[in-house]
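#structure-requests
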Amino acid sequence: MIFAIVGTQRFRFDRMFILLDEAIEAGIIQEEVVAQSGYTSYEPRHFRTIPFLSQEEMNAYIERSRCVITHAGIGSITNCLERGKPVVVIPRRKDKGEHVDDHQLEIAKVFQERGYVAAAESQTELEKLIPAIEKMEFQPYVRQPSNLISSIKNYVNSL
């Protein structure tokens, strides 16, 4: 199974679902696809969508999946990586009305440059990645500890 994630912000991401439908129609994806659809209004012809999931339900779908195709939300990406899943990132784009700016392009670029994920922007790129994703070698992801809590504690202790 392939699990797809678009997140929970109030932005549609029809382009990602169209790419998935086209990959299924072309025979590139020949397995079940389930997608968390959020506010996306596109009605897929070849896979099932669920608008919103609890964190536990989301994690269960990620665990059962062969790979995950996700928008470039940091939480979505890191959640999949922490579960050891191969991840294909399709970033939302401002020029397509999918977000307010292009920060998702930047996020996808950083995660790809560090060797954690593969990124796709087109049907051609997605069709190359899907069959090869399990053979690709990715860097192991280790969550970096946040300095925020210790900074807050140090500040409070200094008062």
